[in-house]
Design a protein that fits this description.
Strand content: 15-25%
Number of strands: 3
Order of helices and strands: EHEHE
Low-confidence stretches: none
Strand order of the largest sheet: 1-2-3
């Protein structure tokens, strides 16, 4: 598998069984288990991640599990190469 695009609405340690969303570690584990080459964190909840620094912190937490990762920023564009 190449690129895994995963939502990351919650911060490290956050969970809610009534509204299942991923935190950075959950997304990183999915990438690792699926043998993805790269992980992109999307659907970052603006009410939970209020600053760009908090999104960068999510990247750092996930990198402890899966190294090749980046969190998208508003209006970010990127190309997917085959």
């Amino acid at each position: 598998m190449g690129l895994l695009i995963a939502e990351c609405a919650y911060k490290t340690g956050q969970k809610n069984n009534k509204w299942p969303q991923l935190n950075p570690e959950d997304a990183a584990m999915l990438a690792k288990e699926s043998k993805a080459k790269k992980l992109t964190l999307v659907h970052v909840n603006a009410h939970i991640y209020k600053t760009l620094e908090e999104r960068k912190e999510a990247e750092k937490h996930a990198q402890g599990i899966f190294g090749n990762i980046f969190a998208v920023m508003d209006d970010m564009e990127f190309e997917i190469e085959e």
